[in-house]
Amino acid sequence: MSARAPEGAGLTTVLALPQWRGAVVLAGEPEGVEVARVVLLEASERLLDGGAQEALVVLPGLGWRSAPAWQLDALLRRAADAGARAVLVAGTGPLPDPTRLLCTRLDLCVLGSGAALLDLAAAAAVHLAAPEVTAARAVLGVARAVADGRVSGPVPLVELCSQLLGAPVAVADASGSVLHGDRSLSVPRPAEAVPQRERTPSPDGVPSTTAARPVLLPGVRSVQRWLVARVPGAPAPLLGTAEDVLAAASTALAGWLAADRTAVERDARGRAALLADVLRLTGEPSPELRQRAAAAGWPLSGWHVGVRVRTGSATDVAGLRHEVVRRCDEVGLQLVVVEHGDGWSGWWSTERSPSAVEVRQLAVRFRRLHDALRRLTGCATGVGRPHHGPAGVAQTLSESADAALLAAGRADQERFLHVDQLGVAQTLLAWTRTETFEPAARSLLEPLLADASLVRTLGAYLDSESSLAETAAVLGVHRNTVAQRVARIERLLGVSLSDHEQRLALQLACRAVQLGR
Amino acid sequence: MGDPLDDDGWAVRDVSAADCPALVRGADVLGSGGGGDARPAGLLFAHAVGRGSVQLLDPDRAADHAVSFVGMVGAASAFTEELPGGGEFARALGAVERWTGERASALASIEAAGLNGVTALATAVSCGLPVVDVDLCGRALPRLEQFSLAVVDGGLPPVALALPGGQVLVVEGGDGPRCERVVRAALAAEGGWAAIATAPVRRGGWPLVGPVRTTRRCLQLGAALERLEPTAGGDEVAAALGGRVLGAGRVVEVARRAGAGFGRGSACVRDRRTSALLRLEMENEYLVAFDDGAPVATTPDLLVVLERRTARVVACDRLRRGDDVVVLQLPAAAFWARGEHGASVAPRSFGLDVDPVLMPQPAGAVW
After folding, report:
1. Chain B residue with minimum CA distance to A106
2. Interatomic CA distance for residues A158 and A170, integer angstroms
3. Which tens digit of pLDDT belongs to each residue from B143-187?
4. Residue A474 pLDDT more than 90?
5. Does residue B251 sit in helix, strand or coil?
6. What is the pTM of this model?
7. Does A73 sit within 8 Å of B290, measured CB to CB?
8. Residues of B in contact with A106 (CB under 8 A)
9. Which ranges constitute the DSSP H helices of A149-238?
10. Kind of pairing, strands A86-90 and A109-113?
11. ipTM for this model
């Protein structure tokens, strides 16, 4: 007889074994029943040895079905007396009512199966000897299939896992919608990038548990895919095995995704380099550049309207490019889209000069694109004016970049700006908020930064046209204090505030630093 | 065991019409669920005996008698459908006397239980013979080969059958099973039942031939039941009958199945107090009782199912789902329980692979 199982010897875990699919409970309740060994009963005398303590007794053969009921009754009684906890009989037909009553009285669970009972007995014995074996076998099944190349993509992988677990399995995208496999599956909480389990009834109402595992790539924080499986039972005895199989599958899937990713990034680098060359254009492009642009499908001639989308630095710009392209198609914009810094740049082209109506319609579409992208990733969008010729691409993109920069601060306009909405002064001011200006401003004011009151005083003094009295009123201090501070500022910075160029530079720097706070 | 000769009136007991109710009830108890309803035979006897009586001889007083065992064989249901004309038993006796050339000086029942618990007495009235209180079964048994004479001798003496249609058959020779087959074939072909009479038998000691004083037990059991209050519970009934309660409650299932021989069946009673499941395995009689799957009482002990409210016997063929019953075990006749002949009436002789589980014989029992 097999040794006592260390854990996981519940009858429900035996019932969850793939070989036991189709076995039915004929009497008693399997929940909470612990079995330690399998006793194959060929002659009922075997039971008298007392070798059936905590056993699952298997009655091979169909004889028990046709025999008078008392024989099965008597055998069940002897099995119970010998310490058996469960009995497996051939056939799934119901037992007579009195026999079921008897099983309840004897606290004996009777299971029936139409399959070959010896297979079930063997599977149960192996499981009871080492419950991990089943899970290990399934995980090995995935690992070998991937290593041999028998499974080389998400679709066959899902099929394999589903077959190994005998349960529906699916691959879902980051938002949790199913890409391959069973459409009825869903990720419990797609926003949380951790393995998840949740009790969810199956579509036909059977209590089940859903296990979901995020597929992550090294160095990329966002979830690439989800692997989901739904195993019967709540709690599900097969859940551990399912999670192990999903873990093995996720490694394989991550490998394929990384390969795809490499290709995506190679393309992205190529596009970024080409864009840099286009943005440097002032006159006519060289034939070589023209060829590269044509190969990439980028129109350089005609009229162009640029758009710039800025996202946070956490956004996977290369990985999400295809999403941006898809959303452009959805709003009816034929755009060139290029990964560019912390976002995307793009332009729309036409052969002849666009009319005012066309420009307005275009703006509406850009707005819709922005709304769609905002749902994907928090972003600020700017749109440029139409410009002509190859150099026009750089011009309109430059305008759209300015607009995008300002749009980031315009929550009231939902962070969307058309360059036409900006005055020249605002455009100029926008330049003080670039990443390049702010460090410069910070270094200019460096000597004052130790004392916050000095920067505030300098800002207020310059804003009030160098009036000590007005500065004192704004800050709520005595004018002598202001005079002392101004003297200290001039000494620390080593400048004279009567110099108008110095004054302008310092005023812009104060703006940038105070806004940057 | 007390000396029956000193007993109060049992050495020679006059059985009259007044004994009929007790006789019928006792015979039903001894039927162990089979043997046929004793009531029609009781009416037959009461009608025949009128104001007179029949002598019931203690077997120890009847060593010098040539005894012919009489009774009815076949289906009790057929007997109640096609009632006897009254002359069948005398005709069977006459035929076997003519065949052997020997006159019977006394009668006895082939099976002093069920309706045959009364037929010998009724026949004795018409033949003017006394009845010896010895029989071949001590309870109800379904097959001729199980008759104690067949078990002891290895075969039956010549027997005559009188069919209700008027034909008479004499069967002689062959062992018990062959005799059984011939008789069964004749019954299947014609009428379904017959009066049977064996050739007169002379033996030194009747207790070696078969169960003794079964009719006396029958009268005592019947009287004990008649004396009981209508409100008596199962335990009181068991005590009055000298048995024990196996279970009491509703019948939850009755399953009957046809077999090669007699129909088989199984009934389950859910005990009201313990919720234990009492399964009664039956053929023509209740044969084995399983308590939660474990055999607790078997043939040749008597398994008696009584309707709880009335303490009336519920025969195997009358038992239905929903009946509220008390199941009792009563000890078997000493001939089967103590003797070496038990195997022929043990569960295995009925095809039930269970060891006999019997009650101890009560001290002082004369049967």
Report:
1. B292
2. 6
3. 999 999 999 999 999 999 999 888 999 999 889 999 999 999 999
4. no
5. strand
6. 0.63
7. yes
8. 292-293
9. 154-165
10. parallel
11. 0.84
Q: What is the CA radius of gyration of chain B?
A: 19
Tell which of A70, A97, A110 to mutate to test the B interface (max B CBs under 10 Å).
A70
For residue A98, the chain B residues in CB contact (below 8 A) are 252-253, 268, 277, 279
Pairing of β B277-282 and β B244-257: unpaired
The Cα A376–Cα A149 span in angstroms is 35
Residues A44 and B292: their CA atoms lie apart, in Å, by 17
CA angle B51, B52, B54 (to 5 degrees): 140
Is the peptide bond preceding residue A201 cis, with omega within 30 degrees of 0? no
Which of A73, A78, A106 to probe the B interface (max B CBs under 10 A)? Answer: A73
Name the token pair of A63: 């004889």
Tell me which residue of A316, A313, A309 sits closest to A193, measured CA to CA: A316
Taking the C-alpha atoms of residue B125 and residue B49, their distance in angstroms, rounded to an integer, is: 6
Closest to A73 (Cα-Cα) out of B32, B305, B288, B319 = B288
How much helix, strand and coil, in percent to the nearest 5, is found in chain A?
50, 20, 30
Structure tokens belonging to residue A463:
């804003």
How many degrees, rounded to 5, is the angle at CA B81 between CA B79 and CA B84?
A: 50
Pairing of strands B67-74, B106-109: parallel
Cα-based distances in Å from A482 to A487, A495, B216: 9, 17, 136
Give the single-character DSSP code of A10.
B
Rounded distance between C-alpha atoms, residue B312 and residue B305, angstroms: 8
Helix, strand or coil for residue A470?
helix
Mean pLDDT computed over A163-177: 88
B236: which 2 tokens? 């009181």
CA-closest candidate to residue B292, choices B305, B278, B280: B278
Task: Inform me whether the C-beta atom of residue A340 falls under 8 Å from chain B C-beta atoms.
Answer: no
- Alpha-carbon distance of A433 to A323, in angstroms, equals 29
* Three-state DSSP class for residue B334: helix
CA A93 – CA B86 distance, rounded (Å) = 52
**Token digits for A48?**
């008298």
CA distance A381 to A402: 10
Task: Please give the structure tokens belonging to residue B55.
Answer: 């002598």
Res. A363: pLDDT tops 80:
yes
Q: Residue for token digits 């800025």?
A: A310
Cα B135 from Cα B147, distance rounded (Å): 9
pLDDT exceeds 80 at position A234: no
| Alpha carbon distance B255, B245 (integer Å) | 23
Distances (CA, A) of B255 to A439, B281, B318, B326: 96, 10, 12, 19
